[in-house]
Design goal:
Layout: H1 5-15, E1 18-21, H2 26-40, H3 44-48, E2 53-54, E3 63-69, E4 79-84, H4 88-92, H5 101-129, H6 135-139, E5 147-156, E6 163-168, E7 174-180, E8 185-188, E9 195-196, E10 203-208, H7 212-215, E11 224-229, E12 239-249, H8 258-261
Helix pairs in contact: 2-5
Length: 267
């Protein structure tokens, strides 16, 4: 499929998301997820050497590298995450751990996916520039890496039954949901209009973050989304689910609160 603004607008207004073309196959994305899980099985002290570093100290989501979240420490769910972008080499390139074969293989796949996702996002923002002059410069500056983040996520399979990722708005500009290990992602204009969403081959899902209406128009509402997954779709005994997501933040982005991001709006 090709993108045009009229279709883009209609789909977002109707569903708060749209499927857009992507250059990589589901096989290639799944291979990268498998490499990520190999990385996660490395000793914790190796992963700690790539502990997340924030680009903006005030913005909790602007980190590059590895993070672990635990409910016993107050997090909403139990998961491990890794965010890659063009700052990774600057922050971690000198560390010997990045040359471990398992790490190097994963990072090469992450770099490839990041590159393709950034190109797709650039095409989308370029289309929006025709309707909202100046939006392109919010995301792209010459000689400055964009504030984009490719995130790999695994959720721990420590309980049976339904697995739930809490409903929320993404905190930044916009998102590409690239791949998931199984069904369960739900997206809607409101918490009452959530729909189960699947992927088509060589297509990914674009949806607005909480700040997208400020960059465009109030016609575009941020996408409320969560994950409800039955235990039979678990990846293995340790991992309930994996996902690969690409976030596009603008430069000098306003930092939104946890309450704003996790409180559904009406209408």
């Amino acid at each position: 499929m090709s993108l045009d603004y009229k279709l883009f607008k209609e789909e977002l207004r109707r569903n708060a998301y749209i499927s857009v073309p992507f250059s990589l196959s589901s096989v290639e994305l799944s291979k990268a997820a498998e490499e990520y899980m190999v990385f996660l099985r490395l000793p914790q002290e190796i992963k700690k050497e790539m502990e997340g570093i924030k680009i903006n100290p005030l913005d909790r989501g602007s980190y590059v590298g590895y993070r672990r979240r635990e409910q016993q420490l107050g997090d909403l769910d139990e998961k491990e995450l890794f965010q890659y972008n063009l700052y990774f080499e600057e922050f971690f390139g000198s560390k010997p751990e990045v040359r471990y074969p398992e790490v190097a293989s994963f990072l090469q796949s992450a770099k490839n996916i990041y590159t393709q996702a950034a190109l797709m996002m650039q095409e989308i923002i370029d289309i929006l520039e025709g309707e909202f002059p100046g939006i392109y410069d919010q995301f792209f500056h010459k000689n400055i890496p964009p504030h984009f983040y490719l995130r790999f996520i695994t959720y721990s399979n420590f309980v049976g039954g339904n697995f739930l990722a809490k409903g929320h708005y993404d905190r930044g500009g916009c998102t590409l949901a690239l791949a998931e290990s199984g069904p369960g992602l739900r997206i809607g204009r409101t918490a009452d209009s959530l729909q189960d969403i699947g992927h088509h081959e060589k297509e990914v899902l674009f949806f607005p973050g909480i700040l997208f209406p400020e960059l465009t128009s109030d016609e575009f509402v941020p996408a409320w989304h969560d994950v409800v997954q039955k235990s039979e779709y678990a990846v293995d005994d340790a991992v309930a689910r994996w996902a690969i997501v690409f976030f596009a933040d603008q430069f000098e982005q306003r930092v939104t609160s946890f309450e704003d991001n996790h409180t559904p709006r009406r209408g």
